[in-house]
Amino acid sequence: MKRLTKSERRKQIRRFDALRDDQTNTTDIPEITEEQMRKGVVGHLYRPIKRPVTMRLDADVIAWLKQGGPGYQTKANWLLRREMLKSRKAYG
Question: What is the pLDDT of residue 92?
Answer without folding.
Answer: 67
